[in-house]
Amino acid sequence: MQARLLIAALALGISGFALADGCPALLQGDLPKLRSKETIDLCQQFGGKPLVVVNTASYCGFVPQFEGLEAVYKAYHGKGLEMLGVPSNDFKQEDADSEKTAKVCYANYGVTFTMAEAQKVRGDGAIPLFRELASQSAAPKWNFYKYVIDRQGRVVESFSSLTKPDDPKFRAAIEQAIASKP
Prior knowledge:
- By secondary structure, this protein is α/β, with parallel strands linked by helices.
- It has a single domain, classed as 3-Layer(aba) Sandwich (Glutaredoxin), CATH 3.40.30.10.
- The protein is 33% helix and 16% strand.
- The protein has six helices and seven strands.
- It comes from Pseudomonas bharatica CSV86.
């Protein structure tokens, strides 16, 4: 029965269809956590929660946005918001040494939200999370592209690198994601 539902959903082109375990397609899988031997089980950690996903890079001119992203995380975490930073060298601005990436995030900018090890976020080699984000919205066009995701694992809205974390439209999308039903 579940297989037929999945086939029917795929045939209808329903993106983000919840699989048998109740986890949306967007959150299937896991990622290695930055500067840790642990992995991030996307469904376990973020399932049913509003989420902001942002691709980052340590040597990008937008790296000061870490401060604003951390402020957003602190402001909305009490309301259930989670945040996931995914470093990437797709735009040739991330260090190959994850210790240096961790220093930028944790020491230089005081990031407390979840950070993954560097991943591919564009093209054929993109990790499943970013392939699904691209199918629901668009692939990141540069570093610090932001996706606001509702409790069902659907993209509410995506924002370019030029959108600062204190932008009213970004904040409104976060509020919408927080208000969404699980």
